[in-house]
Amino acid sequence: MFGKYDLSTNLKEQDVEIVVEGRGKRKRYYRRIGNEEVEKIIYADSGNLVVCPVEPVNIPDMTISEHLLIEFDKPIVVEPGTNSTFYAKFPIEVGVFLVDRKDVEEIDIFTKTKPKYTLYGPPERGVVCKWWKSEIYNEKPEVEKLYEGIVRVDITNNYSEWTEMKKIVFRAFDMKIFYDDYAYMHAYLKILKKAMGETTFNSRKPKNMQESIDIYLAKGIQKLDKKFVMEWRFK
Amino acid sequence: MIPEAVNEILQSKIGGITVVNLFTFIIILILSVIIGKVVKANIHRIMKEKIPITTLIVVEKMAYYTIIFIGFMVALPYVGFSLSGLLVAGGILGIVIGFASQTVVSNFISGIFLLIEKPMKVGDGVNIGDVSGVVEDIRILSTTVRTYDGVYVRLPNDKVFSSNIKNYVAHEARRFGYTVGISYKDDAEKAVDIIKKLLDEHPLVLKEPSPTIFVEELGDSSVNLTIKVWAPSSHWYGVYTEMLWKIKVALEKEGIEIPFPQHVVHMAKG
Q1: pLDDT (tens digit, 9 = 90+) per residue, A38-48?
Q2: Full-model pTM
Q3: CB-based contacts of A10: which residues, under 8 Å, 6+ apart?
Q4: Is the Cβ of B173 closer than 8 Å to some Cβ of chain A?
């Protein structure tokens, strides 16, 4: 389903359907996912429709949080002074955009996932995060493509002791999502102290993949801090 | 070293002031304007994302004119004005203005302290004294609040500063609670499970800190359950207004009764 399409298209995958139809300038945009339907009228001569995964912090409301916390099903213990790599899954939100040479306009965002939020850190200073639970994989796992994406995490333990981790937090401002028929991110975690680490993203586009549209750029939202410092432990 | 002719010009007097002193006066003024502009630009750069634009403009102007005023006072003796005389005159004037503008100064000083202390920011849901609403603007003399029923309220800053301020969104998450009574014949553990499941399904009921549900009291007519829920501060009210009815419906759907107050009356025989 992910990709770039003409303004006359009919996409269907599992229980998701996206239709753009109509003659001349006036077009009808229709999207259905399960029982939820959205319909809009588009006036356009040219341009394209782009369907791609976006930062998974928009539904139900992007003002709630700009962080994603992935909780692992089992804790990971990392040896001091080493590098490790693992894969996890993250929730998918799909963005539908109208694109021409000058501008990008978001017309719809939907998800098959059930959103849930949690607090990372104490109530007075912590951050509210979109919550997701994932297993840990050594290889890229199989995913239900409209439901979950794959995040590769490279951990560097710069701390002098073994570190146990049960969760990782990312800032959506920094996310770089790529796609072909599934969504993919490549993140880094640097463990700095016993209870402190820093998460960032690799912005280099993997071979044969497309870069997703940045929802914050599309909405004209100014990005402040990008990397995220996990300062309230990893458990 | 200075040629005689130049020295003569510099020492010549215009209206009783030497040319060199006049130049010094002008240079000090120009320097104070330049310093003022540099300070103003730096304040703008550093503070633009920290305080509202209306307040920032006031702070910038205050800094700019204070520097120019100081420069002016430093330069005045070069054109023959005595600072001590000015200070006496200024002191008397100050007392007069001080009495006349006591409230303004009080509001102004409170405004500065509010900017430093930052107990709230524009957009926060607050309660200041007996006013509840959303902060619209924090200016140097007053703070404006839009009450939840849409009324514009202007509060002088000295009143804001001396009032109890409750900021409902200062922290990321906040807790709220309900008390729900179930009948004595029903299973409280089952009721707890039903409520817990319902709360788990709501996206904005935070996973951590997790909701707490327990039997608080064996009341006159019901077993009272206390439910404590954490939600994002920015969206807690929507969750608060939504969940109580949902809890009632979910409990009744599972056959758990929420009883009315009742008395058992024993009738005496004969």
Answers
A1: 999 999 888 89
A2: 0.76
A3: A17, A18, A19, A20, A21
A4: yes
